[in-house]
């Protein structure tokens, strides 16, 4: 079951303790750093964040990516080095945060959830990603585990594709967020396909397992929805934010990002509506099938019960049953029975039962 | 299945790449230009946008219409010639945009969806239309494919009907948007007729296929709804926009347009409510039918099972069954049976089962 | 089917063409004028609006009522005479407007829908009424057809009842609107009675036609609702309007009008809720009835099928069936059967099936 | 049926006519006056309002309570004496007002509905109460009929309990409103108990009448809800009102009153949710019962129909049926039947049908 | 049944009477006091609040905790000693308050509900907790009964863990509120587990009791929801409050608290959605089961009724039934029956009934 709430581990803690509360506990901390500007790019993998820079060079964008939040000491040191408020450090390691933006004066702190599909089970997986945009063209990103949706951005940085190498750390933040939201669409597309399959099978022949599938998609959408509504708020706050850390020319891109976030919500809501419709359709076709079954039973019973009764009559052993001795008694009984069946069939035909 | 989300093609792209993401990929770019004022009108078909004008003459309205977004080069050149921000060019070719208005200082950028009915399948088709209203009385429109709802406006321009020839490019934008929204009503009218047909058939004789029809209309309405809510926002923003590009005298018309957009939403919501009602009606009449079928079965079974039992009794081969030897035994059995049937019928009649 | 959208006629028109789009096409234009102040009243019926006045006398209230919108020429002339913007003229003849208030500087333009019950079918009929309140104590009203809810106001004017003769054209507007909204209550009262009848019959004996009645009332309420929500907005705008055309002393009355409009909405919403409740009740009582029918069937079948089987056993023709030759075999079989039936009945009694 | 709309009587009236529209038409007007301050209290019963005071003494709180609104003349005189605007007088006698607060400069006009339970039928009764708080420490209350929820306040006044004798007319207004809202809780408590009873019976043994009870409670709640939402608005407006008539020290009490009004709404909404839940529970348990009935039928039929068929086989009169002449034929048939029944029972047991 | 409304005891009271209205009536008042700063901590248990301090020392945080609200005298004295407005004292003892924050100038008054699980029945219990944050670093908390969720905070105070000893009374308020809200998550986690169990059992084998469990969880959630929505408002008001009692450095923590309150609401709403889904699933699987039962019955009946009829035919005693004398008559009848059964089975197989 997907967690809809903070874990027990998190609850026992006093506020202010920076202990990781997620489930990726055996991931070692890994620091990667990409420094670039229009003319150069270098990728480093320092042992710890403290080795990344002394004073950042504003002419060069520094992107520090940290995978693995499990080593409390390392995270604490990182927080101290980056001069982060202890509550921010807590928010980074206490995963299951609501997506949000916090303006911390000299830096912006953005927490979102990255969705992906488990390639095997096709379940939705999610991971918390924290962004810290600092003065001096520095962007720090924290992830729970290696493996992310940022590879495309790295590729573009290396190959100097698109605008990203010509812009600052704020544009890099946009590009990474864009990659995160694009991944939401990928996840939703897979849901779209599953709904389509269910629709087709429903039209064809509804079977009970479809309902559990519908329910399970509904549940996953509920989970996505919980991430996506606050995501929209956070991106909206980012767009409207008046911090100097965001350049004017980047705002237009952030508005675009906001449009995408709304489109994600629209799609999730449409899917929910469609699933309701699909479920109604299932229930009605179930009602239809029961009705069909009932009709078959009723037709058979209504035709045969009366004539069986007649057969029963002439199976009685009374001494005196005059009809039994008629010459054409047997034929007459058959005739009566056939007439009765014909009347029944005509009745059902008029009622359009078959 | 109608796309409720951006296509996979769009997702792989780095932000900033202006590659067409729709499905009308084999449409060549076609540029048409209509220049007019109160006294003259000329229709040109230049090979490329670059040939349309050097400096627009503010005394003449220039309407440049571009069909086909598939040729990335041509679109890029067009964007450069019109001095459009690269994000705007992307929005034009990345169809599946949410309808929106963007105020780009020297120009207004409006994206909407044009709905039409596939004349064969009666499905809803949609196409993205982008409007750029620029200084110098210039309106540029981008469409995914030829064939549009603007023919009426062109006709009025040619024949100098109505006010359109006496007004500027902002009024032309209004007239074209009015044509787009009027087409929504045409689409909705066809839905209204389909709902009416379903209603009539429901009252008459509900059959299972009606439900799939209801579901399919619901789905199409969901799709329209997704276009229409942001359309209202965009038209509202256009009305309230304080740009110099919109003359004061045009605002009254835009308010009218806004009223129409609200009326479209009202109608869509009413249709949704009506479909819910129709579906409830279907389900209840299904329940009624099952109830009817059950009653037929129960009446037949309740009448014949007991008397068949009596016939069974006197079909037994016991040596000593005194009744079998009575003179009027057979007649007495018939009498008993007829009385039992009469009681049953009276019972059902009192219960109003038939 | 009630129209929920603009008619096809309206769509083909270029914006700005003042052609009547309603269905009351054979109504000739009829102009009536009532001039009054505290001391005098005169009723005139001029051939055309142009003959009504040259310069209105502000000391006298002029109420010009125009029935019939079908004669485009006459309407156009009227519009010109009253110096109405062409869009206003269009709104007057394009019926199916959303109720709205427009402040046109020297005049106020209010469009609402007047509801009435078709006296024969008890269906809801609706007609668009436009009010133009102008400087110089002039109120112009446009109706689609003769026959209105204003007769009571005319009567009060003639007999100098109430306050209306002591007040200006703005109060007359209030009095007429009050008559319109009061008529909504009359229509709603008839719905209330129909719902009450349905409720009583449901409690008594639910029959399938009730559902169609519920659906049809729902549909009519949907239609009323579409008129009534924007009506509230329009009346609210009228109350808050700061035009000099509305005297301060009239505002208190308009607030009262607004209260009434909200009460109409409250009532419509309550009726919708009640209809949902009634429908749920119908469906559940249908379920109950099916359950009852099933129980009858099951009781009969469960009692007779086993004993019929026993009768069948002793109807077999095996050479050796010892029981057949017992002296009290027949009586014993009856005893067994009666015991079985008694057990069954006890079982059903314990299950409270009857 | 509870009235959800203005009565027919009210509709025929011209606006401005102060004729009582409620159903308590045979109640004579009765005026009671209580004058008090910290040191004294006197209770008077003048014949008419005109006799109550010439100029109120601001050092003494004057509470004038008028029961019975049916005497148009008396009410008109009262209105004139109290210098009430004619619309206010109309609002007082036109019961079925939406609860509201009106700030009339020198006085505050508050209309609410008082709910009570009919002690016999346990139905909700309601009565309109109007409050007029005037300068000079005067509070006038109008009721449709004698018998109210104010007796507790009168008692406290007489016995000088609580704060009420130490405070002004604004606190008296609060104390009376508090009594009105407290009575809402009493009414709701009775609903809570009825819902609790229904719940318990549902868990025990659902029977069809429960549904009508649920529907009837729903309907009453709908009625309460219509009074209670605008009541909250009115009390909120009273709290925020900046009139000098309300002393600063009373505002804290009004905030408390507002909290109570919200709590009433919360409770009504919770009850609605609970009733929906109860209704769902009823419907599902109905489905369960039908399922149970079906299972009994199916088990009996499935067990006996096949073995009855076998008995039928050996009841046939063919000349040559070898089995009939077997020595252990009869026993073999029994054996076969018992085996078949055992298989059936095992099948049903595995399906967990019993 | 959980109380959704004020008790009868509360209603009879005049406003302003401070009599405890909860159900924990036999709890003696117990006062505990913890005084601490960075360097020292002392725990006292004075006999009454009056003994706690004369003038608080602002350098030391004083946390006075009072358990038991039943002794009206003691509470009244406490209120007087703490100089609380009588309405505040009433709010403290009138439990069933809506959670709220009131800014009383020199102090902040916060009322919330503390939830916990009854360890035996797993029902939700709730208790009202009132906080009064006063000048001079004083925090007073009132509880209905001993036993609370504050033990963790006390432990941290004693052991000087976390930040709490380094901060003022406002941080202590935050820490206590954090403990309260953390406990909501504990309660919700238990609900999450119960829903998960229900889901699993539903997928497996739905049985009727699940529905009552679903309903009972729904009801408890309804109860939690009533506490939690106003809790969010109260915490939001606390965060935005501009009182000097809250230090700037504490605000960031309060924002965190607010995030948690929203997360509680999100979780409650998600659970409600999930329960709806689970209930739909239950109802559909019930429909499926009825359908299955019907199919079994129909298959058995449809196969055996016709062949039983044939057996009945040849059980008739007509003198002349030629078939009875055929040599292979009996075998032929068997053949016909087997063919009929085969046809039926093929029909059901094609219909996918088994």
Describe this structure in words.
Five copies of one chain form a homopentamer. Chain A has 354 residues and is an alpha+beta fold. Chain A has two domains: 8-284, Beta Polymerase, domain 2 (2-Layer Sandwich); 293-350, Up-down Bundle (Methane Monooxygenase Hydroxylase, Chain G, domain 1), CATH 1.20.58. Chain A contains eight helices and seven strands, in the order H-E-E-E-H-H-E-E-E-E-H-H-H-H-H. Chain A has helices at 8-12, 72-81, 86-93, 151-159, 169-204, 209-240, 248-313, 329-350; strands at 30-36, 41-44, 61-67, 100-103, 107-117, 124-134, 138-143. Chain A has a seven-stranded mixed sheet with strand order 2-1-3-7-6-5-4, sandwiched between helices. In chain A, strand 1 (30-36) and strand 2 (41-44) form a beta hairpin. Chain A is rod-shaped, with a radius of gyration of 34 Å. The mean pLDDT of chain A is 86. Chains A and B meet through helix 5 and helix 7 of A and helix 1, helix 3, helix 6, helix 7 and helix 8 of B.
SSE layout and pairings?
Five copies of one chain form a homopentamer.
Chain A: H1 8-12, E1 30-36, E2 41-44, E3 61-67, H2 72-81, H3 86-93, E4 100-103, E5 107-117, E6 124-134, E7 138-143, H4 151-159, H5 169-204, H6 209-240, H7 248-313, H8 329-350
Parallel strand pairs in A: 3-7
Antiparallel strand pairs in A: 1-2, 1-3, 4-5, 5-6, 6-7
Helix pairs in contact in A: 5-6, 5-7, 6-7, 7-8
């Amino acid at each position: 079951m997907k967690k809809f709430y903070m874990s027990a581990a998190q609850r026992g803690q006093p506020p202010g303790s920076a202990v990781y509360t997620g489930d990726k506990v055996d991931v070692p901390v890994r620091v990667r750093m990409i420094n670039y500007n229009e003319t150069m790019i270098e990728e480093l993998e320092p042992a710890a964040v403290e080795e990344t820079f002394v004073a950042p060079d504003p002419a060069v964008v520094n992107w520090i990516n940290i995978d693995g939040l499990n080593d409390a000491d390392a995270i604490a040191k990182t927080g101290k080095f980056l001069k982060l408020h202890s509550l921010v450090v807590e928010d980074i390691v206490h995963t299951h945060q609501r997506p949000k933006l916090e303006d911390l004066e000299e830096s912006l702190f953005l927490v979102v959830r990255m969705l992906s599909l488990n390639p095997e089970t096709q379940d939705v997986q999610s991971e918390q990603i924290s962004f810290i945009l600092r003065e001096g063209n520095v962007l720090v990103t924290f992830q729970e585990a290696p493996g992310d949706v940022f590879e495309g951005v790295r590729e573009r940085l290396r190959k100097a594709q698109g605008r990203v190498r010509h812009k600052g750390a704020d544009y890099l933040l946009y590009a990474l967020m864009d990659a995160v939201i694009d991944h939401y669409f990928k996840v939703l597309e897979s849901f779209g396909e599953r709904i389509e399959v269910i629709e087709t099978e429903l039209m064809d022949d509804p079977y009970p397992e479809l309902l559990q599938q519908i329910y399970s998609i509904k549940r996953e959408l509920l989970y996505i929805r919980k991430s996506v509504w606050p995501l929209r708020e956070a991106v909206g706050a980012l767009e409207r934010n008046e911090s100097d850390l965001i350049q004017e020319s980047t705002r237009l891109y952030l508005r675009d990002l906001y449009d995408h976030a709304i489109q994600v919500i629209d799609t999730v809501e449409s899917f929910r509506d469609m699933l309701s419709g699909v479920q109604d359709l299932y229930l009605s076709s179930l009602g239809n099938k029961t009705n069909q079954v009932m009709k078959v039973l009723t037709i058979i019973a209504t035709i045969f019960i009366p004539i069986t009764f007649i057969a029963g009559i002439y199976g009685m052993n009374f001494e005196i049953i005059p009809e039994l001795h008629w010459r054409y008694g047997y034929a007459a009984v058959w005739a009566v029975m056939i007439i009765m069946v014909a009347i029944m069939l005509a009745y059902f035909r008029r009622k359009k039962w078959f």
